[in-house]
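Reader question, answered in our methods column.
A reader sent in the components of a multi-part assembly and asked whether the whole thing could be modeled at once rather than chain by chain. We filled in our standard form and ran it. Here is what they sent:
COMPLEX SIZE: two components
ENTRIES:
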Amino acid sequence: MKNQIIKTNASIICGASVVGHKEHDGPIGHLFDIYDENDRFKQKTWEKSENQMQKLAFENALRKARLQVCDIDALFAGDLLNQCIGSAYGLLDFDIPYFGLYGACSTIIEGIILASSLISGGVFKKCAAVTSSHFCSAEQQYRTPLEYGGQRSPTAQWTVTGSGAFIVGEETESKVRITAALPGIVIDKGVNDAANMGAAMAPAAIDTLIRFFEQSETSPEDYDAIFTGDLGYEGSIILKELMAVEGYDMSINYEDCGNIIFDRERQDVHSGGSGCGCSAVVLASYILPKIQSGEYKKVLMIGTGAMMSPSSLKQGLSIPAIAHLIMLEHAEVQNGNI
Amino acid sequence: MKNQIIKTNASIICGASVVGHKEHDGPIGHLFDIYDENDRFKQKTWEKSENQMQKLAFENALRKARLQVCDIDALFAGDLLNQCIGSAYGLLDFDIPYFGLYGACSTIIEGIILASSLISGGVFKKCAAVTSSHFCSAEQQYRTPLEYGGQRSPTAQWTVTGSGAFIVGEETESKVRITAALPGIVIDKGVNDAANMGAAMAPAAIDTLIRFFEQSETSPEDYDAIFTGDLGYEGSIILKELMAVEGYDMSINYEDCGNIIFDRERQDVHSGGSGCGCSAVVLASYILPKIQSGEYKKVLMIGTGAMMSPSSLKQGLSIPAIAHLIMLEHAEVQNGNI
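And here is the structure of the entire assembly that came back:
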């Protein structure tokens, strides 16, 4: 059974997104549910702003699903901050069993895989997966204080200020079915440039994608769309080139959420968006509605995460990465309340 | 179904423990599988030493279970280091789907709950849960550099240098059955003293324990033993006092792993042991064998975690905590290979 596709019978009842100013100003800015003009969400620290984003995203997801806090059996949550305080404090108000995750930027897909697998196995009925990243809290923790104004390299990505929350339920509760999942394996191909996460994460995405195509006996053209989380401009080019070498043409229907969320030229984001929030808000606001409406019948969504820390890089280690995959399908028949 | 006990049909096939010098020198030091006299495990940094401990613990667990890497469907792992690099790098050599967790010191029980729930639901057949903490890597990240020689307050705990790994399998594979699980809710009672984690975590343990007793209609005397992960001397006194107020007598069969692992007086550890490794190595080496042999028929094990970060404390926030519970039972009949 090792490394095998998990057949899931679950659905995404709804997704909610909360973003900052720059994301709202981007090409899909009009699709997000909530945004704050100064990225502070009325809080005094960037970390508290991130907490508030998670709270707003989860509350909004509950509202959209017409559910109460007491309807949710478990929360799966995580973020990029040390000790995942974005989630622990952000979701503190909700009296729900809590599973803290750390999958770096792949966290939302890790959470959806666990939620949908446990629902498929009859353990839970409804779960939520929540994640966030904030440009300012990430910048000061991973790189330099904002005031420093450090130059960014061309391959560097821009951490998305955003939080996404998803309510995952049983199969018949929505038109957006989660029909399969493939958890990732930690892969380290020796990339040690912290300003080029796309290159570090692309091999993990390729590993998961190829395992999925081989086991499912499908190829890219069997899907309406294939998305990676935050490989960005650099990483998605690497993915396309290396997948072509392996015999998979990704040029037609593949895109990265980091390329979708920002206008690379106009918004000066170099290699595109990144962060836990990147894939989460694009999935919630751009991808899910297209599956809901039937525009996409079959989609692959791959969360990508770089699992290093500033300390491990300073100690000369390279960047391990992971990529978790879910298959989402449009279902015509629907008995749920959405 | 909210906040309810999960009925699980799984078993702990085996546990393995790797510790440092001080743990080996403690009251149960002779029970641990592997130890290193200078806590370095032949590595050049404390973080790499922690990686090596996880690797050794997992390899040893596989060996004890007479299993290969390819027999394990999923790894559930996490630790205290920023971005959980103890696990991401420590388990990098193993080609196994990886779910990164962050539950602070409750991580091993969080991992065992997820593994046993997914096995009970038929999603996986065999999983591993792995965690670690290292006194030196934790000290320099959370407190002060070792060379600083900071004074410790009486309520402060000593981070255990240890890694525990568990192989979780289907019901009939071992005499140690996981028959129930109750995931924790994040609780913040306003404690903001980073040198008194026991006080911060005790309310979370009490919340989970009382929910468990009420739902299962049992009380402490129905169990041969009840263990918390790392409340230490201070926290376990608080737990006993507050549980007594609620009508539960914890004085007979309750102990904390942080009190078991060190000799508080002789080893100068103030309020006892703490860290992800604390509950993991005590469970693997002290508790599991007693269930295996039938000395304990029914045990509650509660992983306790403090979910704050040094940043959140500096910003004036209090310490949120969580406690995850599993019920372990001795089964006479066994069809497995151990």
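What stands out: The two ends of chain B are 35 Å apart (CA to CA). The first strand of chain B starts at residue 6 and ends at 19.
Send us your own complexes using the same form.
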